[in-house]
C-alpha cells in the first residue's frame, strides 16, 4: 500500500563539513501513525517479510538516485541496509542487479550495509558472499561495529570498505572520554586496515570534536541533520535550509 517510506540521513565529512554520503532508512507511515524500525524489523525478520522490504527499499533508493542524477552534478553515495535473511537468499544479488539495470544505476553509487552480527551467521558463508558482492563492484559497510562478536582476524579477512561505529560507543564520550577508549582502538585498527569510519548517532558538538581529534571520516547524526524525506534531501543538497 506504499505505507513504507525511505528517509535519508546525511553523512558529513569531518574534514570538509560537506555531505559525502547518506544512509537510507525506512519508516512505516500507517494512517496517522509512524512506526519505527525497532518495532517492526524484529517481526519482519521472524516472518521473512524483511526480504521483501529490503528489495522495496533498494528499488526506491535506485529510483531516487536516478532522479538526483538528472538534477545534480554530484550526489552522495547511498548506503542501503541488507538483512541477514536477504544474505541467505542465493539470488539476492541477481535481483538487485536487475533493479539497478532498470534505473541505470552503477554499483559504485551504492554501499551495501550489513550488521556485524551477520558476519557470524552460521547459516551463510559470509566470506564467500562478501567476495561476490565485491566482485559486483559494490562497497561494503559493517554496521553496529563493536556490538557483535566478529574476531579481528575475520575483520582483516573480510573485503569491507567501511566500519560504522555504534551509537552506544558514541554516547560514552559525553559521560567520560576515558570511557570512550574503544573508539580510539577502533580508529587505530580501521586506519591500519585502510577502512573508512562512520560514527552513528552523533548528537553533540563535544562528540564531533572528539571524533575529529581521532580522525573519524564521516559523522552521521542529529548534530548535523535528522533523517530526511527524499524531497527534503534534494533541498539539503541544494543548500536550502530544512
What does this structure look like?
The chain is of the alpha/beta class and 242 residues long. Helix content is 43%, strand content 24%. It has eleven helices and ten strands. The chain has an eight-stranded mixed beta barrel, surrounded by four helices. Helix 6 links the parallel strand 6 and strand 7. The mean pLDDT is 90.
Nutshell version of this structure?
The chain is built from eleven helices and ten strands. By secondary structure, it is an alpha/beta fold.
Number of strands: 10
Overall structural class, as computed from helix and strand content, comes to alpha/beta
Distance between the termini: 28 Å
- Cα-based radius of gyration, to the nearest Å: 18 Å
Segments where pLDDT lies below 50 for 5+ residues? none
Please state the oligomeric state of the protein chains shown: single chain
Structural shape: globular
Amino acid at each position: 500500500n506504499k505505507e513504507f517510506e525511505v528517509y535519508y540521513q546525511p553523512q558529513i565529512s569531518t574534514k570538509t563539513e560537506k555531505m559525502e554520503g547518506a544512509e537510507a532508512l525506512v519508516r512505516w507511515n500507517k494512517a496517522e501513525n509512524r512506526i519505527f524500525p525497532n518495532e517492526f524489523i524484529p517481526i519482519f525478520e521472524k516472518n521473512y517479510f524483511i526480504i521483501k522490504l529490503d528489495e522495496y527499499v533498494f528499488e526506491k533508493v535506485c529510483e531516487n538516485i536516478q532522479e538526483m542524477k538528472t538534477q545534480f552534478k554530484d550526489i552522495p553515495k547511498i548506503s542501503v541496509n541488507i538483512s541477514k535473511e536477504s544474505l541467505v537468499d542465493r539470488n539476492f544479488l541477481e535481483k538487485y542487479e536487475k533493479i539497478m539495470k532498470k534505473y541505470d544505476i552503477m554499483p559504485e553509487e551504492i554501499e551495501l550495509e550489513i550488521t556485524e552480527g551477520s558476519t557470524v551467521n552460521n547459516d551463510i558463508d559470509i566470506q564467500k558472499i562478501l567476495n561476490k558482492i565485491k566482485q559486483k563492484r559494490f562497497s561494503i559497510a559493517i554496521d553496529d561495529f563493536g556490538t557483535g562478536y566478529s574476531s579481528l582476524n575475520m575483520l582483516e579477512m573480510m573485503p569491507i570498505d567501511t566500519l560504522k561505529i555504534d551509537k552506544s560507543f558514541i554516547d560514552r564520550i559525553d559521560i567520560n572520554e576515558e570511557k570512550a577508549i574503544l573508539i580510539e582502538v577502533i580508529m587505530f585498527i580501521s586506519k591500519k586496515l585502510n577502512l573508512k569510519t562512520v560514527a552513528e548517532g552523533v548528537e553533540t558538538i563535544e562528540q564531533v570534536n572528539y571524533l575529529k581529534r581521532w580522525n573519524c571520516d564521516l559523522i552521521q547524526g542529529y548534530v548535523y541533520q535528522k533523517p530526511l524525506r527524499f524531497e527534503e534531501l534534494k533541498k539539503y543538497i541544494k543548500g536550502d535550509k530544512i
